[in-house]
Amino acid sequence: MPVTCGNRRRHPDGGTATHETVAAVRACYLAREIWPCGWQTGLVNPENGEQYVVECDGLTWHLPDDRGYTCEHDHTHIYAEVRQREGWDYAADPEEAGLLAGRGVEPVSMRGGGIDIDLPAMRYAMSLPG
Ligand SMILES: [Zn+2]
Ligand SMILES: [Zn+2]
Fold it and tell me: Which ligand is nearest to the Cα of residue 6, counting in written order?
């Protein structure tokens, strides 16, 4: 649910007076740095079937402990060093998830949740030396 924010001067687009979450309003006031998200989503126009890309302009800020950053629409990016230290990584599809799982790395979907694992890909990764 949108939350009204009184710190409009700092908003990426200068116009919107709300954020999606209370966390975003807090970040708007307190974060040392904020910027528009830029996450790209491919969509299809139902009228003519044409594909187009929309960029998220949500407020983005650094996560605590410098783990990465997140936007008010939940587009979260965790830095590669942190992912490696914590033993997981992003996978775009089940095949990539299988390759990660076969190497003992926990696959996580780009949206930050669980993801299906392609078993042949996992067995293939397990069969590789090293
Ligand atoms: Zn704000
Ligand atoms: Zn976003």
Answer: 1
